[in-house]
Structure formats: structure tokens, C-alpha cells
Amino acid sequence: MQNSQDKNLMQDILMLEKGVCDLYMHGSIESSTQNINQAFKSALNESLCMQDTVYQQMKSKGWYQTEQAEQEKIDTLKQKFSNQMMG
């Protein structure tokens, strides 16, 4: 039971960190002065580090599964976005 509770707690923490990162990123984009921009960037970097730590812990316990993207799909998306940027 504890393992399931730990997993749920880590999932909640990860989702919160992702939300915080999103807020800090938008704060940085919308900031009106260099000092405010730098404060948001610093906070974002710290939150990204925390998010990565949580993610790595979950991954090591098998609680966060990822799959390798196929190279063909990567190439297709690269081409699509390259074409959009060109015209």
C-alpha cells in the first residue's frame, strides 16, 4: 500500500512542478523589466531542476514510463516545422 501512496504522491508533485514551470516561463516571457525577467528565469531553472529530480526518481522506480520516438516520426516533424518556418 505504501508503494502505491508514494507513487501517487510523486505523480502529484511532478504535476505541480510542471505547472509551476509553466507559470514561471510565462512570467519570464511577460516580464516588463530585466530584473523581473531574471527573477522568473532563475525560479524557472530551479523548478526545472526539481522537476527533473522527481522525474528521475519516478523513472528509477518504474513509475514513469517513456518510449523512444521513431526516427521517421522525428524526421517528419522536423520537416513539417521547417516548412512552416520557411513560409
Features:
83% helix; 87 residues; flat; 3 helices; mainly alpha
How would you characterize the overall build of this protein?
The structure is a single chain. The protein has helices spanning 2-30, 34-60, 71-86. The longest helix is centred in the N-terminal third of the chain and has 29 residues, at 2-30. With 87 residues, the protein is an all-alpha fold. α1 runs antiparallel to α2. Helix content is 83%, strand content 0%. The model has no long low-confidence stretch (mean pLDDT 92).
Helix and strand layout, with pairings?
Layout: H1 2-30, H2 34-60, H3 71-86
How many strands, what sense, and barrel or not for the largest sheet?
none
Beta-strand share of residues: under 5%
End-to-end Cα distance, whole Å, is 55 Å
Q: What is the helix content?
A: over 70%
Would you count the extended β strands for me? 0
Q: What's the pLDDT, averaged over the residues? A: 92
**Strand and helix order:** HHH
- Report the structural category: mainly alpha
The DSSP helix count reads 3
Q: Tell the overall outline.
A: flat
Q: Evaluate the radius of gyration.
A: 18 Å
Report the uncertain regions. none
